[in-house]
Amino acid sequence: NFMLTQPHSVSESPGKTVTISCTRSSGSIASNYVQWYQQRPGSAPTTVIYEDNQRPSGVPDRFSGSIDSSSNSASLTISGLKTEDEADYYCQSYDSSIVVFGGGTKLTVL
Amino acid sequence: QVTLRESGPALVKPTQTLTLTCTFSGFSLSTSGMCVSWIRQPPGKALEWLALIDWDDDKYYSTSLKTRLTISKDTSKNQVVLTMTNMDPVDTATYYCARTTAAGNYYFDYWGQGTLVTVSS
Questions:
Q1: Considering only residues 23 to 42 of chain B, which have any Cβ-Cβ distance to chain A shorter than 8 Å?
Q2: What DSSP state is assigned to residue B2?
Q3: What is the pLDDT of residues A26-67, one digit of tens each?
Q4: Residue B105 is nearest to which of A33, A44, A104, comparing CB atoms?
Q5: Per residue in A4-36, pLDDT tens?
Q6: C-beta of residue B84 within 8 angstroms of C-beta of residue B104
Q7: DSSP state, A96?
Q8: Cα separations (Å) of A81 from A7, A62, B41, B44, B61?
Q9: B2 reaches A (C-beta below 8 A)
Q10: How far is it, in rounded angstroms, from Cα A72 to Cα A23?
């Protein structure tokens, strides 16, 4: 199985833009879709990006996703940061019917 | 409206078997492409996928835990059951079930609220 590696934490100021990376350890990042989930304390995760770059209805367009084959990684970018964006973010992908989550990134908006 | 709800014991003793039930509504597990997964999260730690069952009754398990896990479904009751044997304190976690779509992707679009299971003697 492969692993998905995320930075443990990132911080940025309100109104700024932040990018969270998710690097796949083996196999191509482009081979299987990547999802991103937001989890606020005490709550279940919710999807902010699916299929690499698609936003579910209700997710603001401040959230965007991309993949970069050269670095074998996916990225979640949040622009115009709001204090309500402060949460843990997890990337997720799969291979051969085995699902893998990244270790999560704590986003602090200060 | 899709909903999922986990139920099961809040406390289990070491070496016991844990049985969790996911009761869902708003979709059918007999519909092609539909699946239900179990995911857990130890306190303060990351999400960990455990198992998935699909509309065709195919079952997939975490490589590291597959010897301890069994997933099953009762389509008529809209329920999915997960059993985990030989529980240990490190298995203390919030256990979530989630609807999973398998149309060229495995994507958790709806989650239950989770149920906290503590393993302690």
A1: 37, 39
A2: -
A3: 999 999 999 999 999 999 999 999 999 999 999 999 999 999
A4: A33
A5: 999 999 999 999 999 999 999 999 999 999 999
A6: no
A7: T
A8: 18, 8, 27, 24, 37
A9: no
A10: 6
Q: Does A36 touch chain B (CB under 8 A)?
A: no
Reading the block at residue A43, the tokens are 């709550």
CB B30 within 8 A of CB A88: no
Over the stretch A88-104, which tens digit does the pLDDT of each residue have? 999 999 998 899 999 99
**Six-digit token string for B63:** 């490589």
With CB atoms and an 8 Å threshold, state whether A50 touches B47: no
Strand positions, DSSP E, chain A: 4-5, 9-12, 18-24, 35-39, 46-49, 63-68, 73-78, 87-95, 98-101, 105-109
User: Tokens 């050269």 appear where?
Assistant: A70
- CA nearest A47: which of A36, A61, A57, A31? A36
Residues of chain B with pLDDT under 70: none
Return the exposure string of B59-93: e unless at least 16 CB atoms fall within 10 Å of the residue's CB, then b: bbbbeebeebbebebeeeebbbbbebeebeeebbb
How many CB contacts within 8 angstroms connect chain A with chain B?
Answer: 58
Residue type, B67: T
Q: Which residues of B touch A94 (CB under 8 A)?
A: 105-106
Instruction: Give the side-chain half-sphere CA count within 13 A for A103.
Output: 12
Q: What residues of A are in contact with residue B112 (Cβ under 8 Å)?
A: 44
